[in-house]
Amino acid sequence: MSGKTLTRADLADAVVRKVGLPRNESQELVELVLGEISSSLARGDSVKLSSFGSFGIREKGERMGRNPKTGDEVPITPRRVLVFRPSNIMKERINQGHARRSKAAE
């Protein structure tokens, strides 16, 4: 693994290189797209990006947990969590890259 994290700035740079928009417009475009995704998820809508995957919200009910330090039981409050399911195309891309690296190491 390379250990690099893709940032908003990296996404904006990619838009500058591949689309040719000015840097400030590229940054605005990235912010608009991420903002729309965030707003949709906050409303409880799912977001599907073709060839990438689906983001959704799952409701988790209240349950009992355990404090690992003390061993005491503690109630965990109900909450909504973000879930991501990669598309089959994304899974194949990830595994192809893994297969190439494995063969190169042999």
From TrEMBL:
One of this protein's GO BP terms?
DNA recombination
Checking PROSITE patterns in the record gives: HISTONE_LIKE
Q: List the CDD domains.
A: IHF_A
Q: Which domain of life is it from?
A: Bacteria
- Molecular function (GO) terms listed? DNA binding; structural constituent of chromatin
Respond yes or no to whether keyword Transcription regulation is given for this record.
Answer: yes
> Quaternary arrangement and interactors, per the entry?
Heterodimer of an alpha and a beta chain.
Q: What does this protein do?
A: This protein is one of the two subunits of integration host factor, a specific DNA-binding protein that functions in genetic recombination as well as in transcriptional and translational control.
Family to which the UniProt record says this protein belongs: Belongs to the bacterial histone-like protein family.
Q: What is this protein called?
A: Integration host factor subunit alpha
Taxonomy-wise, where does this protein's organism fall, top ranks first?
A: Bacteria, Pseudomonadati, Pseudomonadota, Alphaproteobacteria, Hyphomicrobiales
- Its gene name is ihfA
